[in-house]
Amino acid sequence: MDMTGEYQIAAPRAAVWQALNDPDVLRACIPGCEELEMTSDTTMTAKVVQKIGPVKAKFAGEVELVNIIVEESYTIQGEGKGGVAGFAKGGADVRLTDGDGHTLLTYEAQATVGGKLARLGSRLINSTAKKLADKFFENFHDHLGGKDARDEVAGDAETAEKA
């Protein structure tokens, strides 16, 4: 599965970068996140509960940040295991640029799933992934003080399954 998105966040780029690297902010913004801890300057562990169609799973995983260009971009790569539900692994390239009174955050993500999750079908997986991404960025935008100035363009993310 491949997914891309673009979000306008009503905050300066430095503030957006700081929030993207703050485990407390991420824990509050990631849907279903129960735990998120920094284990080094570039690695985190997380526990997230998600319901995808009829499958509910608690994922435990690790995430690493690589290709870091401070206040500009990084690549997130990681894997989560959900017991009998299966696994998810992948990565995302995240880029920040200055906009007119906002920061433009763009991402390109790739993910694969296995186990029971893989049997649910690509439409359900893609739809759920898009909803989770949109919810994360809505929470993230609101956390940075953008509740009243949310830009409707922010939710324009496209999802396409990669063969």
UniProtKB/TrEMBL annotation:
Q: Which InterPro entries match?
A: CO_DH_gsu, START-like_dom_sf
Q: From which residue to which does any coiled coil extend? A: none
Known SUPFAM superfamilies for this protein? Answer: Bet v1-like
Protein name (record):
Carbon monoxide dehydrogenase
